[in-house]
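If you are new to this repository, start here. Below is one unmodified record pulled from the training split, so you can see the exact layout before writing a loader.
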Amino acid sequence: MSAHKTINPQLALDAILDVLIPANRDRDIPAAGELGVAAFVTEAAARNPALNSALVTLIARAGELAGGITPHTVRQLESELPEAFSLLLTETYKGYYSRPDMRAKVGVGSHPVHPAGYEVASDPPALLNELTAPVRARGPVFRDPTGGQA
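And here is the target side for that same chain:
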């Protein structure tokens, strides 16, 4: 039987987020919990019952595990509760990397992904020819919508 200890849900969530995206002091990049990503996650959970349930379950389980919230604890949560963990991880990434200040620090444009998008260089014509050669060699693979009648 696990010993259940009282755990502050906000502090637990911040600690888990700090493990998921740790700080990099050399590059002046804060950890997710210290950046306040928990607010983003909890706001998303208020609109998404599955995420809310996942958070409650993960934090409750974290309170049952010995040793506080460490990388080992977070790996254990991921192993024991993969669906709940996946929901939290996705929202953590969304909350962290949706911030223009953080995207700029990790070398991604600080403008929104949509509608502006990111500039993508065109592939060289030789590469495009190589990539599409098997498709062109196969020939047309579709039905004539007119049934052969113009």
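Two things worth knowing about this chain: The chain has eight helices and no strands. The helical segments are 9-20, 32-35, 37-47, 49-64, 71-80, 82-97, 100-105, 125-138.
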